[in-house]
Amino acid sequence: MKASIPESWSHIILPEFEKEYFKELSSFVTKEYKTTICYPATKEIFAAFNHCSLSNTKVVIIGQDPYHGPHQANGLCFSVKDGIKHPPSLINIFKELETDLNITYPISGNLERWAKQGVLLLNATLTVRAHEAGSHQKKGWETFTDTIIKRISEEKKGVIFMLWGGYAKKKSKLIDTNKHYILTSGHPSPLSANRGYWFGNKHFSAANTILKDSGKAQIEW
């Protein structure tokens, strides 16, 4: 599993590559990609870091693992490639955007536009086998991404962490709440959203208010 890591993340990520857990993870992922269909494409596994530098990171959204259907995953959590039908969770994210900020429902589900503005769209697990949700969990990815979250917490100040659903909320223990902001709600998946745990959380306007009050550029969601 070869990767081109951007300069701003290299001091965090490259040392992880040398650790035993990551060598075992890399061996597993390499074999999976050779013997089965996996997502995202190998060049997009670390896309979250390629589209959002550490210095520019203002918001962190944590997902669980990539979409496992054809042509969906592009390496950014909750995001799909241009022209791809929006999955249910993304539809609910965009519906909340509509009501929260009174903006038109986006045509494209590609969230690279968010990443380029400083939104790190980080899945806890960065790869998945086709049609098998969670198939690459507990192989080492969580150790890697937990390290990323902890280092962001240590090295930066005033980052807004959006933790959606029980899985993401557990990551709060990695974040220094004296330095950063944590916004929590239910998950945008239909199961959670339709039970009243997602809609109305107003996370997008809340994040922009925090950014504005901090003298930072707001996100054009």
Per-chain topology:
Layout: H1 7-17, H2 20-35, E1 38-39, H3 47-51, E2 59-63, H4 88-101, H5 112-115, E3 119-123, E4 128-129, H6 141-155, E5 160-164, H7 165-169, E6 181-185, H8 190-193, H9 203-213
Parallel strand pairs: 2-3, 2-5, 5-6
Antiparallel strand pairs: 1-4
Q: End-to-end distance, in Å?
A: 33 Å
Ranges where pLDDT stays below 50 over 5 or more residues in a row are none
**Separate helix tally:** 9
* Percentage of β-strand residues: 5-15%
**Sheet of most strands:** 4 strands, parallel
Derived from helix and strand composition plus strand pairing, the structural class reads alpha/beta
Overall geometric form: globular
- Mean residue pLDDT: 96
Strand segment tally = 6
**Estimated helix fraction:** 25-40%
Helix-strand sequence: HHEHEHHEEHEHEHH
Lateral arrangement of strands in the main beta sheet: 3-2-5-6
Please characterize this protein's 3D structure.
The protein has 221 residues and is α/β, with parallel strands linked by helices. The radius of gyration is 17 Å and the shape is globular. 38% of the residues lie in helices and 11% in strands. It has a four-stranded parallel β-sheet. A two-stranded antiparallel ribbon has the order 1-4. Strand 5, helix 7 (165-169) and strand 6 form a beta-alpha-beta unit. It has nine helices and six strands, in the order H-H-E-H-E-H-H-E-E-H-E-H-E-H-H.
